[in-house]
Design goal:
The complex is a heterodimer. By secondary structure, chain A is mostly beta strands. Chain A has no helices and 11 strands. Chain A has strands spanning 3-7, 10-12, 18-25, 33-39, 45-51, 58-60, 68-73, 78-83, 92-100, 103-107, 111-115. In chain A, strands 2, 4, 5, 6, 9, 10 and 11 form a 7-stranded mixed sheet that branches. In chain B, strands 1, 3, 4, 7, 8 and 9 form a 6-stranded mixed sheet that branches. Classes of the chains: A mainly beta, B mainly beta.
Chain lengths: 117, 108
Amino acid sequence: EVQLVESGGGLVQPGGSLRLSCAASGFTFSVHWMHWVRQAPGKGLVWVSRISSDGSDTIYADSVKGRFTISRDNAKNTLFLQMHSLRGEDTAVYYCARQDYVDVDYWGQGTLVTVSS
Amino acid sequence: QSVLTQPPSASGTPGQRVTISCSGSTSSIGSDSVNWYQHLPGTAPRLLFYGNNQRPSRVPDRFSVSKSGTSASLAISGLQSEDEADYYCATWDDGRWVLGGGTKLTVL
């Protein structure tokens, strides 16, 4: 069974940093591209970033480019999102998701990040 | 503002048929397949359709999709209370994965 479990969310002050993790199991993590998607309170799902299977290719939404870094450790079946210079508008539930060929199929249950003083 | 446009809300009574539209552009829906997701608050979003019209076996055949040009739509027939959720379309646009703004479906 495919499982994606996010962790690392919490309360952080504006300008602070946070590192999210996504532990993958039930599939061969190293062959799949992976994504981060977020949902602000009362808003819809918004794509954040994507990483290729070997980690060599990454892409970001304009809203987080230069502040967030996506990475992965295929030996530990774990996806990461390092977030710096956090702003109030980054407050959201962050989901990791798996891509199979060109389709994003499985998602985790999310971890909440709250940026507030 | 999302690259893909969905109505913010839709509603229907049990047994009815409802449709949810998704409007894009030549570089998004016009160039790639559209996926659809169902999302209940506090849970993981669930894939309903991929590759334009492929449905995972666990998804009831009450759900169907169509696509024409730069628009796509999701239809739910025989509406049930358990269908009350948020629905999102998604596709690729210039290397980025994009989602619609979401449609909140209410079963009256």
